[in-house]
């Protein structure tokens, strides 16, 4: 008996995941492949052909895992956002993708904030600047790699590149376009922003914006050979991964809120529209589904945990051993605070500062490795507490992302924020989100609500409840955290200068390649 199914593809920063889901939500097949991230100091890149190759291998394995008797009726794609993904007129990459983690444009962000261009970007897109956003990256690439822009015919974000390889069609959606030149109140590219930035010369690069649940093209013969998908299957436009994860969680109505803790952290609230003032560092993403997301996306995610495991853990230590060590250190980490601003490009929420740097404060010669570890978990939670805003008590927080697989992190988040944290046990929420869109496009569901209802049936949740006895401790900790951070901010630019003068790279070596964080601590 043939079962209709859809394929969801999620190309995060560190891994590609693919799922095959029956129309009743049962997972029939799954696969995952790692991706390399290459660092050259502040420059962070990925090979676009390597990503496509990983997609082909992953989808083929997932389809094979689903077995015989499965009819694929549609495909959905999501992926990491931001960065510059340039292709030429023949569809070939103009070079490696400069991804969202890139920090080379940090000085340009500072200059734009001084001369008013940062305000213009915020007024029209609803989002603050950061070095990995396309407008400032295009200027940086024009200076550093003019040959790439000379060849470029199109800007395709990660999921758009994958869908292009599947179908040969150039398109994007409002969620990815929101981080470029999109007016989030109209859902169209803003000529006023292009002109105000002096970027009319880049207008030709921008892909047409299509609804996320619309089928745009079908799987072509070369893609069918590469992926094992049937030729002619429709492929939906899709969403950026942070929005797709929210759809996978069922957070699609105004008032819904959720957290994603992966390579970055992400706190999102669904709103009816994007008008009105917002916090510093706000990101506004039009969804194309009749709503917008108001988001704060601090850089404080899994890379802090990966790094601290490297510098504090014995050789060969796995996450279970290290988390036992951190648990034993106890709440408050012996008075040690960790400022989780380890990204080479600084911080973008709940404040914007390209010079932000990580630090432990409050240490002594009695500080233990377990306390250093514990402080990193609590530092990430304290940043998310700031992003969520006061009061810290209230409705349950829904959470997803690779790092959310850590029970310790979920419990620390509950204790530090004072809110119950509810973790979905449904796998691959980003892929499930675009699979829901694919169900609609493939005719297997009447609308998004019915698709989500079907896909949500097998899902369960696990709730982590805050310990009320820790409330006073974490309130005092939060005040000390903010005070220590604010005291250090004036010296961050000097520290960045020293890093440059001493030749210290912003990554572990002048050129490094990093694999996904171990044991599930990775991007959504």
Summarize the structure.
With 524 residues, the chain is α+β, with helices and mostly antiparallel strands. Helices cover 37% and strands 20% of the residues.
Keywords:
alpha+beta, Nucleotidyltransferase, domain 5, seven-stranded mixed sheet, 18 helices, 37% helix, disordered C terminus, Erythritol kinase
Describe the structure.
Residues 6-248 form the Carbohydrate kinase FGGY N-terminal domain. It comes from Streptomyces uncialis. Keywords: Kinase, Transferase. Pfam families: FGGY_C, FGGY_N. This protein has 18 helices and 24 strands. With 524 residues, the protein is α+β, with helices and mostly antiparallel strands. It folds into 2 domains: 3-247 and 430-458, ATPase, nucleotide binding domain (Nucleotidyltransferase, domain 5), CATH 3.30.420.40; 302-387 and 465-520, ATPase, nucleotide binding domain (Nucleotidyltransferase, domain 5, 2-Layer Sandwich), CATH 3.30.420. The chain has a 7-stranded mixed sheet with strand order 17-18-16-15-21-22-23, sandwiched between helices. A hairpin with a 4-residue loop joins strand 2 (15-22) and strand 3. Residues 506-524 have low confidence and may be disordered.
